[in-house]
Amino acid sequence: MKGDRVEIVVDAGDTTRTYEVVASRAGRRVETAVRRGVVEVSEVTRNGSVVRTARFMATRVLALVEQPMPRQDSSERALREDPQS
Length: 85
Hints:
There is one protein chain. With about 80 residues, the protein is mainly beta. The protein is built from one helix and six strands. It has one helix at about 75-80, and strands at about 5-10, 15-20, 30-35, 40-45, 50-55, 60-65. A three-stranded antiparallel sheet has the order 2-1-6, with no helix packed on it. A hairpin with a 4-residue loop joins strand 1 and strand 2. The longest helix has 7 residues, at about 75-80. The protein is globular, with a radius of gyration of 17 Å. The chain starts with a strand and ends in a 5-residue tail after the last helix.
């Protein structure tokens, strides 16, 4: 969903580099996959079309941090509302 982000920390020889992939619009999500030694992070639309992709060699990836946007359930909102008012 919009606001979801994935941070990728990569070993760049003598230093580290941090990259971010963010679901930039409503209805988009961020998906991660590890295939054949490659870490792939993609921003995907509702119907499954890939908008953009970041690919990294798995041996160079130090950390992959998924940070979902906090969501409110309709049931949570109902518990917070005061039925007396």
